Amino acid sequence: MASHDSHTGRLSSLFASPDTSSFTEFLGAYSPDLLPGGRTPPASPVGDEIPHGTTIVAVTFPGGVVMAGDRRATAGNVIAQRDIEKVFRADEFSAIAIAGTAGIGIEMMRLFQVELEHYEKREGRTLSVEGKANRLATMVRQNLGMAMQGLAVVPLFAGYDEERDAGRIFSYDPAGGRYEERDFHSIGSGSVFARGALKKLFRRDLSAEDAALVCVQALYDAADDDSATGGPDLPRRIFPVVASVTSDGYRRLGEDEVGALARSVVEGRYDSPGGPTAPLR
Length: 281
Prior knowledge:
Strand 4 and strand 5 form a beta hairpin. It contains eight helices and 13 strands. The chain is of the alpha+beta class. Strands 1, 4, 5, 6, 7, 8, 9 and 10 form an eight-stranded antiparallel sheet that branches.
């Protein structure tokens, strides 16, 4: 990688006058091998030995959105890590979470954070929520070669839309397809079970606190039926990562807040192992 002119010792002219407000495009022109999808895919599909992140959920409420993720990473039938974090601040008014190959997912998340900050500094304004979602779709698409060899990363993106005064959720497929979801969504190995819980518990008038509780309930249901999803670990004080995005910006709930939610869910399951029931009518 040539980071500077070997004769003058100066940085490449790309640094002095970049032609794009996209950091990903700039990096692709300068040193494409540094992009997550810019590396040569393995010759054959990888096995289960590489850690994978699992279940993520997101729920909208009036004026915002809550996103939460369990803390387990698995490598085949082995728990690779009990306290991995999969939900992150993308910028002041958005959040990103990853499921799939953990190492590549975290790298993609960090690159996305730089992408948004680079655009803001270059243009003097932030991207719209849809603009951010589109930039992330491009990054996912660039990882297609790795995904076809078993190193797929599927993110979930959520942000606050100032014009609508509402939270919005976007999901993706490994080929970079971008889809806006209504009300709630879940990705990862336990998503089928989590989505079933979300479907029964969601209401359009949820408060931010109730939306967080719904997320924790859904993650518990996912862990109840999916061995790759970790439930609240009370003895080790390992709880889901829960974050909200509103007009006040991104806020990660403190450990005491999430711990209280997790304990209330676990205690409630002693009386109702299947969780809260939705009204029939």
